[in-house]
Amino acid sequence: MWHKIDREKYCVVLDEPELYVDNKSRGRSGHMSHAMVEFAPDTFIDFNSNCSPVRCKGHSAFGWIEYRISNDAGKTYSEPRELPYSTEALLNGVYTISVEKAVTWKDGRIVAFCLRNDTLHPVCCEPWFTPMVVISYDGGESWSKPHEVSPYKGRIYDALERDGVIYMLQFANDGAVKFTGNKKEDIYKLFVSLDGGESFEERSDIPLDAIGRGYGSLLFDGQGRLHMYAYNINAEREMDHMVSDDLGFSWSSAGACYLEKGIRNPQTALIDGVYILHGRGEKEKGFVLYSSKDGYTWDEGVYLETEKKLCYYSNNIVLNDTDGGKYLLIQYSDAYDEARVNVMHMRLKITK
User: Can you tell me the distance from the alpha carbon of 53 to that of 65, in angstroms, rounded to the nearest whole number?
Assistant: First the structure.
């Protein structure tokens, strides 16, 4: 046990972080692209980026995407493989590809959401072109040709599957000015797919004032309500919170969630009845984690890492543990030199 957070009715227990991708040793970096999804019992795919350590001192998506497969709920992993679409795009010199989210459908297929960015932009993760998906029907052995999932330029911030429906959250902001909303046309949109990612349709515009907003997370609660959270660059301790009672057809504001240590790039999860939120802290300081019993009111949070760095992009997945319970695998980037990052894993469990 590395860190234990005691609450009135539960404890959040964290194991010591483990090095997952050693970019320092191979002289690389790994900006963004932390998608993970389980596609068979105890079997999941885990993505990471292999990026230039020189461009923007490592804080750039100029590179390609790798992935590994674990067949034992995260104990061991396969050798890394390259995502063909990402290497082809890079070699063609037009786009760089990032994979921040992936889902699986009822037949076990893997649907990986691909952001497309301009190689001429130094950071290569804005501005955005229209997003794409690639699908693997055979557990990552091969991949389909990419196809467009939205007619809008912008970034896919989250995706999940529930009852045969894939939900995709896109911020329709091309990022030409900056990644946060800056014009009235910028808007968060919810898309759905009923055919396993072969096609997507708009379900709703989320009625959130998007000026100054960025990032986003989707979460189904224990009662089947769909929650959407967003970052506010002008009030980093006030995370926007929207709720839908009808699977995303309509939305209402739940008011801002107050977060004592702020949040950037919020990532959420529900495990053993406890809601978890993690991301970069206020003003890019540290890696912060919060917990909640309802997803509305969050505790004071704890810093898992405290330094101010250009890293701590993250994601998570709920997996089976060896004791018969569940654990949350958190993946995040951690700087080893300036903005050059390794990829870390951290395990979280809830005890009552």
Answer: 15
Three-state secondary structure of the chain: CCEEEECCCCEEEECCCEEEECHHHHCCECCCCCCEEEEECCEEEEEEEEECCCHHHHCCCCEEEEEEEECCCCCCCCCCEECHHHHHHHHHCCEEEEEEEEEECCCCCEEEEEEEEECCCCCCCCCECCCEEEEECCCCCCCCCCEECCCCCCEEEEEEEECCEEEEEEEECCCCCCCCECCCCCEEEEEEECCCCCCCEEEEECCCCCECEEEEEEEECCCCCEEEEEEECCCCCEEEEEEECCCCCCCEECCCEECCCCCEEEEEEEECCEEEEEEECHHHEEEEEEEECCCCCCCCCEEEEEEECCCCCEEEEEEECCCCCEEEEEEEEEEEECCEEEEEEEEEEEEC
Exposure b/e, 28-40, CB count within 10 A at least 16 = b: bbbbbbbbbbbbe
pLDDT tens profile 57-107: 999 999 999 999 999 999 999 999 999 999 999 999 989 999 999 999 999
Residues of the chain predicted below pLDDT 70: 1
Q: Which two tokens stand for residue 46?
A: 């885990």
Q: Is the pTM of this model over 0.85?
A: yes
124-172 pLDDT, tens digit each: 888 999 999 999 999 999 999 999 999 999 999 999 999 999 999 999 9
Nearest alpha-carbon partner for 181 in 215, 212, 216, 217 = 212
Quick check: 58 and 123 in contact, CB under 8 A?
no
Tokens coding 276:
């978890």
**Residue 103 pLDDT:** 98
Please give the angle made by the CA atoms of 89, 94 and 99, to the nearest 5 degrees. Answer: 45
